[in-house]
């Protein structure tokens, strides 16, 4: 399970770092700012999870692969930003992939550390959405996850699938694949079809 | 003391979650965003406290009551926002109640974990103001606690009362009641009468 | 090494607290808000470092000297803001001094806790830039460190010097002096001469 966790984490790190770097370039940060934002977007969710379960120092600081992968993604984005932009909605698609990978790996790790099903689901969701929250807070905007199409819901669904699989005694791999597919599929369909949760009416009219 | 701590925490959770949900609805977040903001406003102070004293995983994640109470408050606010708005300044009054409850329960828990009087007072204050800070940072505005009428001062007074009571050998209950009443009273009177701390003059004129 | 760590930390605390208080006064926070921002700017980097290496409760909460020094700096700035403003670019110079002191002390402490060279360098950098990030996030602006002249680069250079010195078997003091001087010098020259890292072009034109 450890190798699986690390592989998922590094792949998620790469795609989230691209999303962080994209936001950084758009906000006209300098090269180092872009790299910091890549690293923050890529690792904040996992770092929050590790702090909350008491797994210090967080793996993203100790294992230098995360830094290398995040910086590589940041440099690629910095250099070929225009090309990456030309792809359709790259931030959203990369976000959806990172979201799915982190939600399932975060839930897996929380289970490994002995947390119960509700806490593990919440921590999986946080691992998925934490990077996006940190990225947006760092450029002083309301996190898109609070207004976007089924963003946190998809992360929670993915994490809950892994947790349910664990409770049903499934091996880790199929639960991870189903959970990640569910999360990515839900988010992708929501983007495509504009599925949104209801928004309250601040004033009655 | 444990039962007292949990009861205070859950009551504070409910009222802070309403304040978080109100800000979420006003910023036109979707249903899930409103629930996340409810949970964040309600539990961030306690989670920060638990991280800082090394009590991981934080009780707000492990004990599902916090999640249920925060989501319930969020759903009620989402559904009946107009009614809640019609009450006079509901955010401020709920904030004052949550502030008082969290400041005293935070100080109590820090004492339980063996921290000294200054650290326990600071942690009580942080437990009180942390949720409001997280709530406001998440919608990208300067936390109102930095400009509001005696906000953090009231939290500090409540926490300091509990700490002083502990040092004087009082039983926990009267110190908690006096501390919470002092905090709420101070904040409420400050809102009513517009008591404010001085603001520096950025330019001499 | 402990005395050295604490002396560096308290000096850095004082200068960072001035920078936090200056931002607080400019944003027209009240007296308490200015003190909270002083304390946050002065201690957030160190608190993040302590949380990440598992050194809870963080020294900035347990040792009341940090609170006293930060509040003293905040009060001085609050009272004599106009005079402090009249000095040339005080925020930037104080920032540079705090940055250098915190970067080296943060790296030292991470080494003390047994972290490897890359993690210790990152944690030294974070100790240096964390306070500035918290300060700016709390007044809802994009942290200046992401756009400023060689800000985080300077912190990383200072921390890396200390780490390299440790790996080469130098005694702590010369590595600390060289690292802090390198960080401050790099940042100061960058401000004077407008050295900046490249910024990506969001659109090809």
* Mean of pLDDT of chain A: 86
Which structural class matches the secondary elements of chain A? Answer: mainly alpha
Distance linking N and C termini of chain A: 54 Å
Overall body shape of chain A: globular
Low-confidence regions of chain A: none
Beta-strand share of residues of chain A = under 5%
**Greatest interface by residues involved:** A-C, 32 and 33 residues
Number of strands of chain A: 0
Commentary on this structure:
The structure is a homotrimer of 205-residue chains. Chain A is mainly alpha-helical and 205 residues long. Chain A has one domain (2-79, 89-193). Chain A is built from nine helices and no strands. The longest helix of chain A has 25 residues, at 2-26. Chain A starts with a helix and ends in a 12-residue tail after the last helix. The relative contact order of chain A is 0.15. Chains in contact: A-B, A-C, B-C. The A-C interface holds A 24-34, 36-37, 47, 51, 54, 56-58, 61-62, 64, 67, 78-79, 81-82, 85, 137-140 and C 51-54, 113, 115-116, 118-119, 122-123, 133, 137, 140-143, 145-147, 150-153, 196-204. Chains A, B, C: The chain crosses the membrane at residues 6-25, 32-52, 64-81, 93-111, 117-138, 150-167, 173-190.
């Amino acid at each position: 399970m450890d190798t699986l966790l690390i592989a998922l984490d590094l792949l998620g790190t790469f795609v989230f770092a691209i999303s962080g770097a994209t936001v950084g370039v758009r906000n006209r940060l300098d090269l180092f700012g872009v790299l910091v934002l890549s690293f923050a977007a890529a690792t904040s969710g996992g770092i929050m999870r590790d702090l909350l379960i008491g797994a210090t120092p967080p793996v993203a600081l100790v294992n230098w692969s995360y830094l290398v992968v995040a910086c590589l993604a940041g440099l690629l984005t910095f250099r070929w930003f225009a090309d990456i932009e030309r792809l359709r909605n790259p931030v959203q698609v990369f976000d959806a992939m990172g979201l799915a990978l982190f939600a399932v790996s975060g839930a897996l790790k929380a289970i490994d550390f002995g947390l119960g099903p509700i806490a593990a689901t919440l921590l999986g969701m946080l691992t998925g959405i934490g990077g996006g929250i940190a990225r947006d807070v760092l450029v002083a905007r309301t996190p898109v996850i609070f207004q976007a199409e089924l963003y946190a819901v998809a992360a929670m669904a993915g994490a809950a699938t892994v947790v349910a699989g664990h409770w049903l005694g499934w091996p880790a791999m199929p639960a991870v694949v189903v959970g990640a597919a569910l999360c990515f599929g839900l988010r992708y369909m929501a983007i495509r079809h504009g599925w949104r949760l209801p928004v309250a009416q601040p004033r009655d009219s």
